[in-house]
Amino acid sequence: YRRQHTKETRLSQFNQTDIKAMLGSYTKVLFVRDPFHRLIATFLQGMGINPSFSSFVQEVLDSGIHNSSMAWKPLVSLCRPCLIQYDYVVMFGFLRQELGHLLRRAGLPAGSLLPELTDTQVQWTYRWLSEQMFSELSAQQKKQLSRFYRWDLAAFPFSSSFLSD
């Protein structure tokens, strides 16, 4: 898009005509991740100051959707997939396969640009971590988390998520 803007400029600061022109001029790629995996990653990175995963989850639930950190805010509220027509949606856990396809579609040599990704190991590790962390939660917390992320679960194919009903 030809209009000059800084990296910090938010899309919402432009008028509808400019927004439409900008979005139409870019290839839009959305990277999505199972919301429960995002919570686990945030907890493991130390963003939650609570000693247990259950306490961390309660902190997330108590913050509410509107006051939540970007690290665990529902994706639908961050990336607006109902308003923005993304050209590609790339699922975490399938990065090697999907990034290869995306690079080929862009006319780039996929093999030489992709880092060594081991999707199978990532999926197995998160499956194991999810089982462990999910077992720490109360039935009420599980239900509340499913409700907290209900729009993400409806918008994206997280069928194997622990938060799916």
TrEMBL record:
One of its GO terms (molecular function) is sulfotransferase activity. Keywords: Carbohydrate metabolism, Glycoprotein, Golgi apparatus, Membrane, Signal-anchor, Transferase, Transmembrane, Transmembrane helix. Its main location: Golgi. The keyword Zinc does not apply. It is a single-pass type II membrane protein. It is found in: Golgi apparatus membrane. It comes from the Eukaryota. Its EC number is 2.8.2.-. The keyword Transferase applies. GO terms for biological process: carbohydrate biosynthetic process; dermatan sulfate proteoglycan metabolic process. One of its GO terms (cellular component) is Golgi membrane. PANTHER family: CARBOHYDRATE SULFOTRANSFERASE (PTHR12137:SF64). Belongs to the sulfotransferase 2 family. This is Carbohydrate sulfotransferase. It comes from Callaeas wilsoni.
